[in-house]
Amino acid sequence: MATCLEELVSKTVSIITADGRYLIGKLRGYDQLVNIILDETYERVFSSNSVMEKVALGLYLIRGDNIAVIGEIDEAVDRSINYENLRCEPLNHITDNSFDCNLTAFGEKVGAVLVEKAVERLPRFANVSDMVCFISEDFWIDLYGKNVTLLTGQNEEHFQLKDSSFLPVINISNGPQFKYEIHKYASFTCGIIQGALKMLGVNSYVTFITDNPPCCII
User: Fold this and answer.
1) What 8-state DSSP symbol labels residue 119?
2) Which intervals hold domain Sm (predicted)?
3) Interior/surface letters 55-72, b for 16+ CB within 10 angstroms, e for the rest
């Protein structure tokens, strides 16, 4: 991303943050962690019962891990849009369980594709234990840049992977209000493992425990 940002310096950009804010300003600088400094910044706030508000923020720092989308704004096109006619409409409530199931299903598709590429030059696994060892070592490195902290197995049917610093949630605060965010990443990862094992010929059920983040037990 840093290479792309170099072309945007001094230009007006829009940023959608991971926590749902819509910010606009002139890009003044950034660092190797993609932390961004905007000038003349303002936030567009949309509501279901009032017109769009522009909240002036001035010089503003945005953390790189909170940037979901960034791009240059065509100011002429932007000025031609009548934002006062735009409103927010509430979406139907999505239950935690149904959303977790969707993430798990999506993770299965991702896991199947990733493991197919990862094992194409490897010999066939002798048993399920070898498959799970591969998941906890080489495959985990491909996903998160490191091995799991601990792998235990009671038998050929039950295994437990412990990652003491589960990378997707390592920057999420440990509090009850962030529990759902942590569950989303864990559900997706469980899906990846299920999909990988299924591609290797093993039907599995993968679940997680995240009582003490960033530790994750799978």
Assistant:
1) T
2) 1-76
3) eebeebebeeeebeebee
Number of CB atoms found within 10 A of residue 218's CB: 20
pLDDT in tens, 142-196: 888 898 999 998 777 899 999 999 988 888 877 777 788 888 889 999 999 999 9
Residue 166: CA count within 13 A, CB half-sphere: 28
pLDDT of residue 1: 54
Domains of the chain are 2-80 (2.30.30.100), 98-217 (3.30.1380.20)
Amino acid identity for residue 133 in this structure: C
**CA triplet 136, 166, 189: central angle to 5 degrees?**
65
Coil, strand, or helix at residue 100? Answer: helix
Would you give the DSSP letter of residue 178? G
Q: Collapsing DSSP states into helix, strand and coil, what is residue 82? A: coil
What is the C-alpha separation between 164 and 30, in angstroms, rounded? 31
- Say if CB 135 and CB 196 are below 8 A apart: yes
Please say whether the beta carbons of 2 and 30 come within 8 A: yes
SS3 state at 135: helix
- Per DSSP bridges, beta strands 22-30 and 12-17 are antiparallel
Single-letter code of the amino acid located at 189: T
> Tokens representing 110?
């991702």
- Treating both helix axes as pointing N-terminal to C-terminal, what angle do 96-118 and 179-199 enclose, rounded to 10 degrees? 40
The pTM is what? 0.56
